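[step 3/7] inverse_fold.run input=structure_tokens len=279
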């Protein structure tokens, strides 16, 4: 049986699985479904048309499934927020449901949302994403698995952030970010590959890492245009699936139509060092 604090407000049409805990003064609106083992802390709010999977934790002041921040949205529109399993939403997290009839904002599994993080309407956040305090994802953006958004990082609307990319603190992107990239402080400043992420990724072997590094070299250090680099990458028929995903991302990003025609970030110029004149 669900455990509901007497001060909480839970609408009659909400569906709560066994083992759900609803804390003091929390609110669960109509047409919400919450899976087994999910816990809502005091003053957490889950708004209408939101689905939460199993074993999620929603901390105080978080609002999941709020109306999209879209001037065209009308309140009678039926749209959704769909959340998977094992996520943590800390204090003050806000995630909007989608704009457009029948559409959904989607959050995968095992994501960690630190305090005051946000995702806008129609965004897609895949598995194992970490959002550090104050980071934000705009509407219609896609953040792929294993991405790390550092404190106060921002993702522009209609942008895609490839798997295991990292955006440093106070950084922002208004372009598509290739997988395994490291984005520096500032806007669209590509520092290089996320080498720490590559090294720690449990599903990558040495061959995968070498091929991803070669794909990055072709795209950013070979002097080729993006179209030329893509042709070179596509010709490597012996590349493993992780490297192929890099190629697929580049193809999709460079061939996207509006409003997803965002391009790729430029590689930040290195500063010359007196200790290493060849740097």
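[step 3/7] decode complete -> sequence:
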């Amino acid at each position: 049986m669900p455990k509901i604090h007497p001060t909480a407000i839970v609408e009659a049409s909400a569906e709560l699985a066994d083992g759900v805990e609803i804390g003091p003064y929390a609110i669960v609106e109509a047409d919400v479904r919450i899976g087994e083992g999910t816990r809502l802390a005091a003053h957490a709010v889950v708004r209408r048309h939101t689905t939460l999977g199993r074993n999620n934790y929603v901390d105080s002041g978080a609002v999941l499934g709020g109306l999209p921040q879209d001037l065209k949205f009308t309140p009678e529109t039926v749209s959704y927020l769909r959340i998977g399993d094992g996520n943590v939403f800390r204090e003050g997290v806000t995630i909007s449901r989608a704009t457009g009839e029948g559409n959904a904002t989607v959050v995968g599994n095992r994501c960690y949302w630190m305090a005051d993080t946000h995702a806008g309407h129609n965004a897609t956040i895949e598995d194992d994403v970490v959002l550090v305090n104050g980071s934000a994802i705009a509407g219609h953006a896609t953040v792929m698995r294993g991405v790390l958004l550092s404190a106060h990082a921002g993702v522009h609307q209609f942008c895609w952030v490839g798997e295991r990319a990292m955006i440093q603190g106070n950084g922002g992107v208004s372009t598509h970010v290739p997988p395994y990239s490291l984005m520096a402080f500032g806007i669209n400043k590509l520092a290089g590959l996320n080498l720490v992420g590559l090294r720690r990724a449990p599903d990558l072997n040495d061959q995968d890492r070498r091929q991803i590094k070669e794909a990055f070299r072709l795209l950013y250090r070979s002097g080729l245009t993006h179209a030329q680099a893509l042709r070179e990458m596509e010709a490597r028929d012996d590349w493993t699936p992780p490297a192929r995903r890099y190629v697929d991302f580049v193809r999709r990003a460079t061939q996207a139509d509006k409003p997803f025609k965002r391009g790729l970030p430029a590689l930040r110029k290195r500063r010359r060092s007196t200790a290493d004149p060849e740097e």
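[step 4/7] annotate
The chain has a mean pLDDT of 94.
The chain is about 15% helix and 25% strand.
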